[in-house]
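S.,

Sequence below, as promised.
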Amino acid sequence: MRAPPDVNLIYTFVQFSAELRERHGCRAIPKLYRIAGRNAVRPLACPGAACSLLYSKKVMAKVLSAMSGGVDSSVATALLLEQGHEVTGAYMKNWINEDNIAGDCPWMQDIEDARAVADLLGVEFRVVNLMRDYRSRVVEYLLEGYRSGVTPNPDVMCNREIKFGAFLNYAHEHGFEYVATGHYAQVEHGPERSRISRGLDPGKDQTYFLSLLRQEQARHALFPIGGILKAEVRTKAAALGLSTAAKKDSQGICFIGQVRMSDFLRAYVPDAPGPIVSQEGKELGEHRGLHLYTLGQRKGLCVPSNSYREAYVVVEKRPATRELVVAFDRPDTAHLYSAGCTTGSITWLQLPPAWPARLDIQPRYRCPGQPSLVEDAGDGSVHITFDTPQRAIAPGQICAFYRGPELLGGGIFRQIHYPS
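The prediction came back faster than expected:
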């Protein structure tokens, strides 16, 4: 496998003159076409004009670029070409809403958007059907988690099992050395190990979602936009004339689309109503199923607090009695803030640290790393003690380990420890 050199190759373009652009309608930003071989130079015909563009390119690695139809993966693909890689674009077809769940699943439009970008950039484009893998590895994990009363994270599992699992396997089978995605993360490939660190844009950093990757997966990962800001991504897309430049970011479940989690769960997990109770045992209302709620949740309870500027939040779920326990959102509310936790099913991207260790723990996406003491529990798990109590941590959620900006690994919260 050829590791991509840490250099910036410079394309030399013979720019179209303003006169030719005006006379022949040439594009100000020319298309980029993949060239087989190294140091190849090829004239590119300008659409509708008797003029041409020359550029030089050195192919560094054969890369399969995951194109979701969004602006991030579009620009990631363009940057790979600028760096000199031999690039093929691919859309992962994971879900098509065969069960008619309420919500928008625009997979056909996403494919067309991705294909349009690939055509403009001049790269081969293909659709890779991973629906069976996605259902067995991600959807079943999601449903089983909610059935058992924990809070799973399908986006993290999608990265490990699909993008850098089934999709990476497909890439290897078809002769690709790397898989590239539009994640806001940075990867450095060393002689023996690869290291992942936070993306340059602090508001978009997505390394949390990569925290369960194994080293052998990280070795074949590229994140072309990790070193630039989101605003620069859109500016780049507009400058290249990409049709996705102004497309809104997806906010739905990983590769499922704009489908609300409650609607998705209701299609597969039957309602199991039960009482909503206070911590003192007073019945306040009724819920439709514990799986539709998570710790710390405030919206959707339909229970008036009758207290000025205070709202109820979920603090506990009791499967045996189907009780959903709520309380006021206060720092001293029992079972709302945790002093620490036990985390298992750990994947170490780097070698485990010497114990005990001082690490930053990120308990959820867009939460700053929390300085913590981490100790070996002796069974493949670790005990974590937070310097500052953390709000609404739930079993099943993903815990990411950092040392500074570097991602060390991740695990799953198993037990939550509350202040005595």
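Residues 4-58 have pLDDT under 50 and may be disordered.

Coffee later?
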